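Worked example 2:
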Amino acid sequence: MSRRMLLPCCLILLLTWAVAPLQAAKKPHVMLDKDSYSPHLSGNLEGYKNKEVFLADFENEAEDTRIWYYYSPDKNTTYEASPTIQSYLWYCWEKALWKLDLRRVYRDSSPSGDIPELRLVFTSWSDRNFVGTVTIWKKAAVVFAKTFDVKFDEPSPAETAQLEQRAYRQMNGIISTILGDDGVRKVLEAQ
C-alpha cells in the first residue's frame, strides 16, 4: 500500500473507531424489572377468582431473543430482564394471576392432577409482537393447546423510561390476550 493511500485509510479507521461508540450509545437499552411490573389486565377476567393453577416453568425457544434480552425488529432497542426473560415473563404472570384473586398459584408442582398446569413456550418476542404456545395439562393429559400471536403498535420515538412503561403495558396485553381466550377460560375456570 502506498503512503498516499495509508493516510486516508488510517483516517477512516480512526473515525470509524471514534464514531462507533457514539452510535451505540444512541441505542436505547431498557431494563425490565419484575418488581416494577404492576398488572393492569383488560377484559372480563373475573371468572378466575378463587381458582387454582400450577404455573410450570416457561420456555424460551425464540431465535430472535437471547437469554436475557429481546429486541426491536431492527435491533436498535434492547429490552433486558433479570435473571432471564423467561423468568421475568413467569414472575409477571404470577403477579397477574394473584391480582385476579386466584386462590392458589403453585410454583414447583401441583398437589393434585385435578389442578390445571399451564405451560408457555414462546417462539418469538420483540417489541412489536409476542408468539407463544400455551398448553394446559390436567390429569397428565393435554386438554388445551393454542399458539398466540400478540401484536403491538410500533413505538414512537421515546425515552428509555417511556419504553420501559410501554413494555409493561405489552406484558399486560400478552397476559390479557391469553387469559381472555375462550379456550383458556373454559379450562381454567372449570374447577
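Helices lie at 3-26, 85-99, 160-179, 182-189. The mean pLDDT is 89.
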